[in-house]
## 1
Amino acid sequence: MEYEAVIGLETHVQLKTRAKMWCGCANEYGADPNTNVCPVCLGLPGSLPVPNEEALKLTALAGMLLNCEIPARAKFDRKNYFYPDAAKDYQISQFALPSNIGGKVEFEFEGGIANVQLNRAHLEEDVGKSSHFAKVSGVDFNRAGVPLLEIVTEPDITSADMAYEYLNALKDILMHGGVSDCDMEKGQVRCDVNVSVRPVGSKELGGKIEIKNMNTFSGARKALEHEIERQIEVVRNGGTIPQSTRRWDDVAEITEEMRSKEDAHDYRYFPCPDLMPLEPGTDWLADVRARVTELPLTRKQRFIRDYKLPAGDAEVFKNDAPLGNYFEVIATKSKNPKAVANWVINNLRAKLTESGESLTDLKFQPDAILELIDLVESGKISSKIAQDAFGEMYSSGKAPGAIVTEKGWVQESDTGALEAWCDEVIAANPGPADDFRNGKGAAINFLKGQVMKLSRGKANPAMVGQLLEKKLTP
Ligand code: ADP
Ligand code: MG
Ligand code: ZN
């Protein structure tokens, strides 16, 4: 019997706010333990939460980017559990009426476009972080009360690789959309993976295993690969998979049982009496909608379609949105968007990487790239000289036309001057010249190179080729 995997992911993404969800404490990474805390996020008796409006807006923005339905009414619930990292003994989350319902994430996968349906994307608060030392354990509450968006998929994912691509796509959307910085190193994206196996063709879901708190995508992929294999092995041998929570051991590369799975009723969810329901109005939603930007995949597809870019170039602009915006400002004015892409990717991006500068530091105007392309296309300068002109324009901010004139870099297309260089080179290289005369066509490339060298790159290469050929053909 053949088995297939069924996977659903619950991903927690930290929202990009200055303050925490219910208090004014900084939403800041790396501070000394328990320095960003107050009575509210420590859950002291008598303290009351006040919602952070920016977190609510980012939640709605995420809903729009992920194609969710944003219901007219949402509310907060208490998820009750007793654990040292939850100072209040409950976590504020959304259970019955989440802020975003449904939705989808589309991404490139195995040569096509995969579509993972979402169940919901709700808002909840983070809890503290426990650390265990030799004799003591401690809890750092700096993270307690930090706003998180939890994005829950339907069990639509069919392989570890697909889960990995989904996670990357989700991260791209939320990061480019300004919802989260999605900084993995700072633990801003964490996911719980749920996985079961079933005989191929079966419509029923098998018992699922949940692996909690994966903080790298490659870790999630590896854990899934192992867990799928393990489950198939168990059912092949006639066993069953009891629903449970397992832990991924990164070093041993195995999953191990943590506890049998808790159900929703174990959390005794009930509406949080301290918080009003959310009823986003039309104007408020319109404000949020004004912040919606193009999805990365949509941009890539549009660049391929509208600017006839190869997929590789479009992928660069998908992953680097500011660079893509910069490209587009120039490309809309150019008859040759591919040439614009070449300059932006091969020259500009390389310089920026090398110097550690960003687009806002540029000394030249975007139109200078158009001028540079014109100089090459009209034959005024060779593409080799254009590289030098770009370097000069990058460091001084001068216009390429002015640079080329000033430096005497204008391409030599005057036949008299070109003939003189060709004659000199033929005289100095009788061997290769004879080779060409005797039918070795490739010898002309060497001679051409010599003329270019002699002219310090200024000779018009196409004309040099023609002249040499004429001179060497009896
Ligand atoms: P729980 O209440 O245990 O968290 P949910 O029904 O809320 O379970 O689902 C949590 C995640 O697990 C969702 O992403 C869902 O798609 C996925 N899931 C549910 N059932 C299965 C299953 N049998 N196999 C794999 N994934 C599943
Ligand atoms: Mg769960
Ligand atoms: Zn606080």
## 2
Amino acid sequence: MDIANEIKKNTNEIFEKISRVIPEIEWNFHAPFIHKINKLKKEKNAIILAHNYQTPEIYHGIADLAADSLALAVEASKTKADIIVMCGVHFMAETAKLMSPQKKILLPDMMAGCSLSSSITGKEVRLLKEKYPGVPVVSYVNTSADVKAETDVCCTSANAVKVVESLGVKKVIFLPDEYLAKYVASQTKVEIISWKGTCIVHEKFTANEINEVKKNNPGIKIIAHPECPPDVIKASDFTGSTTGMINYVNKNQPKKVMMVTECSMSDNVEVENPNVQFIKPCNLCPHMKKITLPKILECLEKESNEIIIPNNQMLKARNSVERMIKIGR
Ligand code: 13P
Ligand code: SF4
């Protein structure tokens, strides 16, 4: 079989699935990469983990698991693969390394960062602990290993309230997302001391924008990520992690929905929900969008961009993630 036919044979099923969101002209560029990556990952016993914000050709074309940050951390702790390619951002790859220190963890673009993660350093957490002695630190996984090493327990948007309440204390330091902290504070009696970090994607949404969409689309369901500002969450019908948002659509099959989050989410979920109409005002995450098929192929071929965590951070940072995984969703 010539190579063009081999590519077609091995990728046609994927194209049929995602042709609603990817035009054929674009697909002709993606297909050879998808074919090569899927072949190579088998040869190398590699697994590809992708965050829900990855583009449809990655999410539906090559990912062994596409999920929210919590599920990615759990999968990284139990996979039998030798190599994990993290299609997501740097803190996700670091978290995978913490959970699988013996494995090779690769990130296709080392510059794929996160505004939340870069909003705070380990040193700043130490200063906060001095200011509030004895108050436990809960950090969002969207932080560096340096910050996780100063943290008692991590959380994600899927379990933040549960993690905070699991500590059985009156007050916690909750880092670094100011809006997630406000959301958690609205759901619990525990006093929350917050930081000033924000997600550059979710902070841009406004209640005015949501109310305008509601006015123009009677009956629409608005589902928002908890990294959004409080008035946006208030104007929404449901709030949850990216996987929580996907589950909401899968289960409720609303006629019309708007996912108040990163752009690729709606494309990815639309593929599996042909009866739901998606209204798509969205904001792009420039970090997530740094991950592309050519970069994934190159990093898997060369086994480049390996994540290394300094020994002095490894054990402490790992403990804070392990503690979170034990608490669960
Ligand atoms: P979750 O997938 O955990 O909801 O996280 C959203 C996010 O912004 C990750 O960068
Ligand atoms: Fe960070 Fe926001 Fe991008 Fe997620 S969407 S990686 S929280 S900047």
